[in-house]
Structures are given as structure tokens and as C-alpha cells.
Amino acid sequence: MSAVSRFVFKVALCLLTLPALAAMSPDLEGLVEVKAKHMDEAYLLPGADFRQYTAVIIDTPDVAFDKDWMRNMNETRTLSHRVSQADAEKIAEATRSGLVEVFQEEFRKAGYEIATAPGAQVLRLSPSIVKLYVNAPDVMAPDRSRTYTIDAGEATLKLKARDSVSGALLGMAVDRREARGTGFVTWTNSVTNRSDFRRLFQQWARICIKGLDELKTSSPVSPEPASAK
Fold it and tell me: DSSP 3-state helix, strand, coil percentages of the chain (rounded to 5)?
């Protein structure tokens, strides 16, 4: 075999092994990607049974901003209006508490008990917010100015569902959405930001509830692979 042939063979071998490595990602823990009806990505554990779950634990989410968010915000702001690390932490904390509050409200309204401890009928939902981008963070500057935007920003939800007793990962969903307000250019401040992101969290919660209800009726699940899309 020539040197060129050996090189081509090695490249082909690497390409063939990449999907296998991805399938064994520790983040998936045996899940397979399935057709996502209402979210960007969905993964399920084949054979998982969701019928027993009548209660949920909503974990406090991790929150991570888009890597360029603070730099982009501060590039066009005067010194007194720049976003500080303290400002970012306040936004992150409001995001954490807001998401948990909304998810608990929506699941309770849908008939699910909000549990505080593991149990045989308790599903643990572990959300995280990544790539959070707030278009007009409202900082407490002495000479506050007005900012006008069409939407409050965007975020990506990553949600894992586990059996609360065994810790087995049963499903995972990923979805990126904009936090939209009226659809028109409007004055954006901390109040409108909270309102717009609250609506986004409600959308996600209702999608998750609908998805869980559907999984309960089709359990034990036999996922249709995403490749069949």
C-alpha cells in the first residue's frame, strides 16, 4: 500500500469512527436521538416507562451566557452603562428562579405534584440554560437611558429527565428560542425582560408537559430514530 493510500485509509477510518464516538457520548447515557416534535433535539431511553410519574422535582438550573454576550453589550456602552459581573449574576439568578417558578406553576396546573424528595412516582427534571443572550440588560446607572428592541433576547434550554430514585437518565431535550414580546420595536427594561423571558419559560414548560403526557400514553417507549425524519 502506497503512502497516499495509507493516508486515505486512515482518514476514512477516522470518519467512520466519529459517529460511533458520538453515540457513546457520556452525556447521552444510552439515549437515542428521536424525532423532535416541538423542540430542536430530543433523546429517549429505549424501553423507558413514564406511566408511573405523577410528580416532578424541578432542579434549580445552571445558567450560562453566550460567550460573546458581555463583550458585545459593553462595546457600545458608556462606562457608567456597562454590564458588570454583578449585573450578569443578578440576571442569571433571576433566570434560575424564574424558570423554576414557571415550571412548578405549569406542572402544578397540569395536575402534577411538585415533590421535594425522590420517590417511586417522582420524575426529576434537571434544566439548564445555555447561550443566554439578553439584548438590553437594564443596569442601575445614574443617568439611565432607554433601549428599544424587537425581542428581549434568546436562550437554549437543555432538559434532562431522570428517575428520581435510581437516577437513570430517561430522556433529554434541547431547544433554542427567542424571548419575544409584542413583535414590534418597544422600550426594553428589566420589567419587560422578565415578562418576555417568563413567556418563553411558559412555552418550554407547556411543551415539556405535553411531551410527558404523550410519553405516558405510549410507554414503554419505542423511539423512532431521528434518522427516519
Answer: 40, 25, 35
Domain count, the chain: 1
Instruction: Give the percent of the chain with pLDDT over 90.
Output: 59
Q: Does some domain include residue 197? A: yes
Structural domain boundaries enclosing 90 = 30-228
Average pLDDT over residues 107-126: 98
**The domain spanning residue 100 has which CATH number?**
3.30.160
Residue type, 154: E
Buried b (16+ CB within 10 A) or exposed e, 151-161: bbbbbbbbbbb
Q: What is the pLDDT of residues 161-204, one digit of tens each?
A: 999 999 999 999 999 999 875 553 444 566 778 889 999 999 99
- For residue 60, give the C-alpha cell: 434549580
What does the mean pLDDT of the chain come to? 82
For residues 5 and 11, give the distance between their C-alpha atoms in angstroms, rounded to a whole number: 10
Helix axis angle for 85-109 and 190-218, nearest 10°, is 40
| Identity of the residue numbered 35 | K
What are the cell numbers at 153? 433576547
